[in-house]
Amino acid sequence: MRKYLIFIIIAVIIASLLFIKSLFFPSQDQNVQAKGGPGQGNKSALPVDLLILKSERASGNIQSTGSVLPNEKVDLAPEASGKVIGIYFKEGSYVKAGQLLIKLNDADLKAQLNKAQVGLKLAKDKAARQEKLLAIQGTSKEDFDIAQNEVLSLQSDISYYQTLIAKTEIRAPFSGIIGFRSIATGSYVSPSTLVATLQQLDPIKIEFTAPEKYLNNFRPGQSFTFNSETSKKQLTGTVQTIDPQIDLNTRSVIIRGIAKNTEKLLPGNFVRVDVNIADNSKVIRVPSSSVVPILKGQKVYLYKNGKAVEQEIEISGRDDKYVQVDRGLKAGDSLIVTGIIMLKQDMEVKPAKIL
């Protein structure tokens, strides 16, 4: 009796296991039947929304990103070696063109200059006497020339020492804001020593890029607008210089403009630039959310014959919701706009909605 009971328990366990397997781990034949069998369509295909692309007139504006640059910038360094005896500026302060910033020890040069100046006075007196004597035939022309040459030689020495003394001073080459100093009073410096950086921050330069196809739409003197993260106020600048070469990697051109620094922007500030180019060409615009960044650009997924197909694109501009595509797409293409994260090349998809 006990043996029969054990046999019944084992049979119940085996039957339970088979039921669980059929319920949670169906066979391939069961999968095919659950999907409706071959020839009845793949119900496991990912449902996606499609956007039928249309060509439209290019926007009169293009958007770009750029950076703020100082109008002028210079790394200050001494022309001569010596010990610093005076620092005449405060870090981060405004200095005027020609203002004395740093003074090096010039005691030995001043001594040499004083000596030359005293010698020049004596040489001039001697030359004056020789001139009077020559007038009455009291001296030779040769002695007079020697006296004159001595005057000229001492004058040259004085100019030389004055030049050396001037090199012991660092003066501001233009008006601007001076940064942190890297020296202190008593420091020994040389021409390779960086003392501080001076930048002219009003006006400022705005550097941004534009696709090469729009190169002919830019010209010096053309106005543009921009704003930064630190100030949402829309500012106006003027195109100043267009780089005479195209970047081989991005196929874009660098443009520099100039603008008044009314919002106290600093070099390195990120800016968004908006330029009116008045272009009437036809372009394709797609939602930004459908674009996938890749190593060498961007790509989108198109719907072709029931599958998702990767397509690399080149974009020229963007706004908050759309990007403007220059190459890679054409009117009539079916762009997949949902489920982008789950898509792979040649993955089976099915239209859920056509926009």
Say what the CATH topology of the largest domain is: Helix Hairpins
Structural class category? alpha+beta
CATH architecture of the largest domain: Orthogonal Bundle
Q: What's the order of the H and E elements? A: HHEEEEEEHHEEEEEEEEEEEEEEE
Short description:
This protein is of the alpha+beta class and about 350 residues long. It is built from 4 helices and 21 strands.
Could you characterize the architecture of this molecule?
With 355 residues, the protein is of the alpha+beta class. Helix content is 24%, strand content 39%. The chain is elongated, with a radius of gyration of 40 Å. The protein starts with a helix and ends with a strand.
What order do the helices and strands come in, and which of them pair?
Blueprint: H1 2-24, H2 28-34, E1 46-52, E2 55-57, E3 61-76, E4 82-87, E5 94-95, E6 100-104, H3 107-135, H4 141-166, E7 169-171, E8 176-178, E9 188-189, E10 196-211, E11 223-228, E12 235-242, E13 252-259, E14 270-276, E15 282-287, E16 292-294, E17 297-304, E18 307-318, E19 322-327, E20 334-336, E21 347-354
Parallel strand pairs: 1-21
Antiparallel strand pairs: 1-20, 2-15, 3-10, 3-14, 4-6, 4-9, 5-8, 6-7, 8-10, 10-13, 11-12, 11-14, 12-13, 15-19, 16-17, 17-18, 18-19, 18-21
Helix pairs in contact: 3-4
